[in-house]
Amino acid sequence: MGDTIFHRIMRREIPADIVYEDEDVIAFRDIAPQAPVHVLFVPKVDVATVNDLQPAQAAIVGRLALAAAAYAKREGFAERGYRLVVNCNGDGGQTVYQLHMHLLAGAPLGHFGTP
Ligand code: AMP
């Protein structure tokens, strides 16, 4: 298993504000939120970046998106809207090398641009 900070959160070695978990996905609040709601959805299998995704792992991205949408509905902001972001490598702004999907919500986020 990988050893990023997200793996340590999954192993419960460091604390996080976990808002959702199932057998495939864990979700917790970003420690440096860029919007009123900022939650990270992380798969429980090792995938460092989108570049490393294999065709057989395509469902992983779907599971992250479905978990994020379910969270948005549960929390009541699905209709107002939200943004899902996956950063890849340096130019994409990725800092933690375990695949993750950002969910940003709670205020108008503008069109494109960094949150
Ligand atoms: P990225 O830049 O796409 O790799 O996103 C990594 C995100 O992880 C950043 O938004 C960080 O604020 C967030 N982050 C880093 N360490 C922690 C942590 N211990 N708990 C929650 N979020 C974290």
Describe this structure in words.
The chain has 115 residues and is α+β, with helices and mostly antiparallel strands. The protein has a single domain, classed as HIT-like (HIT family, subunit A, 2-Layer Sandwich). Helices cover 24% and strands 22% of the residues. The chain is built from three helices and five strands, in the order H-E-E-E-H-E-H-E. The protein has helices at 5-10, 58-75, 89-92, and strands at residues 18-21, 25-29, 37-43, 82-85, 101-105. The radius of gyration is 14 Å and the shape is globular. The relative contact order is 0.22. The model has no long low-confidence stretch (mean pLDDT 95). It binds adenosine monophosphate.
How many discrete structural domains? 1
Q: From the 3D structure, determine the CATH topology.
A: HIT family, subunit A
Summarize the amount of helix as a percent range: 10-25%
Give the biggest sheet.
Answer: 5 strands, antiparallel
Strand order of the largest sheet: 1-2-3-5-4
**What would you say the CATH architecture is?**
2-Layer Sandwich
The CATH class assignment is Alpha Beta
- Can you list the ligands bound to this structure? adenosine monophosphate
The CATH homologous superfamily corresponds to HIT-like
Radius of gyration: 14 Å
**Mean residue pLDDT:** 95
Task: Tell me the span between the first and last alpha carbons.
Answer: 30 Å
The secondary structure category is alpha+beta
Order of helices and strands: HEEEHEHE
Coarse morphology = globular
The number of E-state strands comes to 5
Low-confidence regions:
none
* Share of β-strand residues: 15-25%
Can you count the helices? Answer: 3
